[in-house]
Amino acid sequence: MEFASFYTRFNALLIFLTLFSPCKFIRIPIETVSLNYIKATSMDFGGPSNFHESTSTASVDFGGFIFNIPSAVFRPKSSRDIAVLLSFLSASSSAKVSVAARGAGHSIHGQAQAPDGIVIEMDTLPSLIEIHKLMDGEEGFPYADVSGGALWIELLEESLKLGLAPRSWTDYLYLSIGGTLSNAGISGQTFKYGPQITNVLQLEVVTGKGEIVTCSPTQSAELFYAVLGGLGQFGIITRARILLQDAPQQVKWIRLFYDDFQTFIKDQELLILMPEKVDYVEGFIVLNENSLHSSSMAFPNQLEFISELRKDSSKVYYCIEFAVHSHKIEEIKIEQVISTNSVTLKQVKPWDMNTSVVLPEASSTTEVDDGRVIYVVGLLQSANPSRCTKTCLTDLLERHRHVAEMAASDRIGAKQYLGHHPSPDQWRKHFGSKWDRFADRKSRFDPLALLAPGQGIFVRSSAST
Ligand SMILES: Cc1cc2nc3c(=O)[nH]c(=O)nc-3n(C[C@H](O)[C@H](O)[C@H](O)COP(=O)(O)OP(=O)(O)OC[C@H]3O[C@@H](n4cnc5c(N)ncnc54)[C@H](O)[C@@H]3O)c2cc1C
């Protein structure tokens, strides 16, 4: 399957539903857990100071409407601390405690929470960002070895000091390396370099059985691919080797506005077919004037169509954002970039089907290797806690659920990115033909389903069962 081509549009759709609200909404009561039992054992978890009972941060996330109180927070000082904890739990038949790694806590639906379990705060691992720049004449790519709890912004800042930058980003960089690699990590560079999970050379992972494994496409490859996009189900990423490239000296950033959907789509597809010329492509729909003001980048007030939007609420505009990098300080001539005569129809294959990510399946009428375009459609909505009551929030969530269900219907066939499915059966449907592989990987790397209970995919079992 190719990533870019002109035909087949919305039959291949990844949907990205997000709702932000700091309202308190669901609170699950604390029940006693065998944490004291764990602490009272003679196991060495890296010292007693690694366990903390203060759980306020660990019980919330960016979404702000799911609250699950863990019994304890674990602040590891090394991968070994995590390994000792997980091997202890997986060997104990009486402790039915679950464990969630928490990166930057930017999940929306409690995915990094552990009801009555243990939350591991990944940012307490010693910060490691080691940049490997190529020496003169050395072949290959520069890369960075980074701890799993480090943030992408920290990696960017360190690599820029040596004139380098990660190849594939997220739009927002205050997310942890382990957190985005557990999903996919997508942005305007995905069409060119693939998601962040296809820009990783090696991982260090602590499996649900407490084994510390260094894995890559050639070493313990099954674990490597399982963990990438694996929703935290197979192991905890304690270290990652991330591909870098030369940072540009200059960037030209262009916004194009359209009032015609077909032209907007056609131009977007034209741009993604030019990865050797274009470095970033995203697009969005301007539904009303507010959607311009809520954008992170200000728009000039004199845009002609703003008055049209004010006059006619049914009017919709579309915007493409794209960027062109230059490695020299020189004027970037956009006309040359988008001259269609010079387009080489070079197609890239950025999604690695060995990873745990699921993509929309090819419909029965299209060949698998048909060069489909995969659209990532984000619905980003926020609720103001001073105005949005519990009822208003419930309505918003209900609308999101409805959109997600429609998009995932057989007619459209989208897959939810950062999905939240209410039952293991719905997860099975989400994974479709990839479910057996996902479940098999779970039984190999986390057989007791200790890890990432907040995703709600598997039910924790005990060693005796
Ligand atoms: C404002 C905002 C902007 C965003 N922008 C983008 C974007 O541009 N592109 C994009 O792709 N996504 C985006 N996201 C989504 C984001 O990538 C995911 O929510 C991601 O999980 C957040 O990373 P985190 O470190 O906060 O993870 P957390 O919320 O802490 O954890 C998410 C999941 O990963 C697991 N996990 C965390 N760390 C590890 C680890 N080290 N090893 C194994 N499992 C782990 C957790 O247990 C949990 O199940 C955005 C989210 C927000 C709130």
TrEMBL record:
Signal peptide stretch: 1-25
Gene Ontology BP terms: cytokinin metabolic process
Cofactor(s) in the UniProt record: FAD
Keyword Lyase included in the entry's annotation: no
Keyword check for Transmembrane helix: no
SUPFAM superfamilies the UniProt entry points to: FAD-binding/transporter-associated domain-like, FAD-linked oxidases, C-terminal domain
EC number: 1.5.99.12
Keyword annotations of the record: FAD, Flavoprotein, Oxidoreductase, Signal
GO MF terms held by the record: cytokinin dehydrogenase activity; FAD binding
InterPro entries: Cytok_DH_C_sf, Cytokinin_DH_FAD/cytokin-bd, FAD-bd_PCMH, FAD-bd_PCMH-like_sf, FAD-bd_PCMH_sub1, FAD-bd_PCMH_sub2, FAD-linked_Oxase-like_C, FAD-linked_Oxidoreductases_BP
Domain of life: Eukaryota
Sequence ranges assigned to domain FAD-binding PCMH-type in this UniProt record: 66-247
Listed Gene3D superfamilies: 3.30.465.10, FAD-linked oxidases, C-terminal domain (3.40.462.10), Uridine Diphospho-n-acetylenolpyruvylglucosamine Reductase, domain 2 (3.30.43.10)
Family affiliation: Belongs to the oxygen-dependent FAD-linked oxidoreductase family.
Designated name of the protein: cytokinin dehydrogenase
Source organism (scientific name): Dendrobium nobile
